[in-house]
Design brief:
Layout: H1 3-13, H2 19-35, E1 44-49, E2 55-60, E3 66-67, E4 72-77, E5 80-87, E6 101-106, E7 113-118, E8 120-127, E9 130-136, E10 140-142, H3 147-162, H4 172-181, E11 186-187, E12 189-194, E13 200-205, E14 208-211, E15 215-221, H5 225-233, E16 235-240, H6 246-251, E17 270-272, E18 279-281, E19 286-298, E20 301-313, E21 318-323, H7 325-334, H8 339-350, H9 355-366
Antiparallel strand pairs: 1-21, 2-3, 2-6, 4-5, 5-9, 6-7, 7-10, 8-9, 11-21, 12-13, 12-16, 14-15, 15-20, 16-19, 17-18, 19-20
């Protein structure tokens, strides 16, 4: 159905609507017609068990493809930057970094290619027995959607963001590359930080990733409260979040704008981490303690390279993760994922909850024999 047909149909079906409600309805119909379907979100919340098993990330251009699924992370959003870990002496030199790219593929099945991200070498960090190469990217190919629908969604997103005031805008090429990287589901965790005086904070984090077993990378907005706090303490605890507690993690997003919190006011019980004794949620399905080794400013963000000092794998339950809406649409069409159920899960995480509701969820969990056991 073309746009004109949509407009005519809307006028026939809703002749008595008020001017404002009709305008909104027409806009929705037009958007659906232009996009070839529903608008796909930049972030879609979904559950994955332990380290995601749906997508494998390959590094191409260094001879035989290298599996870097658990050896890369986003190091900055602006400029969009990717960090990849190599064992000492095995990283390509600068002259061999010009033709590198990441290829994201279906793990199993037909091994279909989901996206590709070209890499532009920028810098190299050394720590322990590893080298960490930093790459920028503004070129990619995304195979998750048909070309027309892919470009219509991108065009609509550009139009919407251009009308938002006081918003940091990422160049289109970098935004596209970021969406291609997020065709791989990535966990959303809670980062706890505390100083020796007991001041602390806890907030959700998803721009992060494993850099082999010994290291972890994450980034925070430069000069914001959490970033300054982490620079000061240089030690944090990272808690994986079961999907059941997704709304609580989403609820804590406001802590990004708070200098410190009162741990006793959190709507869930905590326990001290193994080494640092930093409070972590009792419901956490995995807790890692990280010692920051390198702090690297990358434009709008600060990249933290940290060593993993402890890793408590508590329970193997569905974990809160996020992926781009393009990949979620591909999952529904190719993996047989139930659209209504997955949409309900995403809505469940995003649903606004009050502190009272969060406390009620926590109380229900407390009634279980073990808070870390899924309901």
């Amino acid at each position: 159905m073309d746009i004109i047909s949509c407009l005519r149909q809307s006028l026939i079906v809703h002749p008595t609507e008020t001017s404002m409600s009709l305008k909104k309805h027409l806009l929705k119909r037009m958007k659906k017609a232009v996009l070839g379907g529903e608008q796909l979100p930049n972030r879609f919340f979904l559950a994955q068990t332990a380290s995601q098993q749906e997508v494998v990330v390959w590094l191409l251009g260094v001879g035989r493809p290298i599996d870097v699924t658990t050896r890369h992370c986003q190091a900055s959003g602006l400029p969009f930057t990717i960090c990849i870990e190599f064992a000492q002496g095995q990283a390509p030199d600068e002259s061999h970094c010009q033709l590198l790219k990441l290829r994201l593929c279906e793990n199993g099945g037909a091994h279909r290619v989901l996206s590709e991200v070209d890499l532009d070498y920028q810098d190299r960090l050394e720590c322990g027995g590893s080298e960490f190469l930093l790459f920028r990217s503004s070129r990619c190919v995304n195979y998750c959607l048909p070309t027309v629908r892919l470009w219509s969604n991108r065009l609509w997103y550009t139009l919407v963001t251009s009308r938002r005031a006081n918003k940091i805008r990422v160049p289109a090429g970098q935004m596209n590359a970021m969406s291609a990287l997020f065709c791989c589901p990535r966990p959303v965790s809670l980062l706890s930080v505390a100083d020796e005086e007991g001041n602390g904070n806890i907030f959700p984090l998803n721009v992060m990733g494993e850099l082999n077993r010994s290291y972890f990378g994450f980034c925070l907005k430069h000069n914001y409260l959490p970033e300054r706090f982490v620079q000061q303490t240089r030690r944090v605890a990272l808690s994986s979040v079961p999907m059941k507690q997704g709304p609580i993690a989403y609820f804590l997003g406001s802590n990004h704008n708070r200098p410190t919190i009162d741990w006793k006011e959190l709507p869930f019980p905590t326990r001290p981490s193994q080494i640092f004794k930093i409070p972590v949620p009792l419901f956490a399905c995995r807790v890692r303690e990280l010692q920051v080794e390198r702090v690297h400013r990358l434009g709008y963000h600060t990249f933290f390279l940290a060593r993993v000092l402890s890793d408590e794998g508590v329970t193997d339950v569905p974990e809160l993760c996020v992926a781009h809406g393009f990949y979620q649409d591909w999952r529904i069409r190719n993996l047989g994922i139930d659209r209504l159920q997955s949409t309900a899960e995403d809505f469940y995480v995003r649903s606004p909850i009050s502190r009272e509701v969060a406390e009620r969820i926590s109380a229900q969990l407390a009634s279980c024999a073990d808070l870390r056991t899924p309901l």
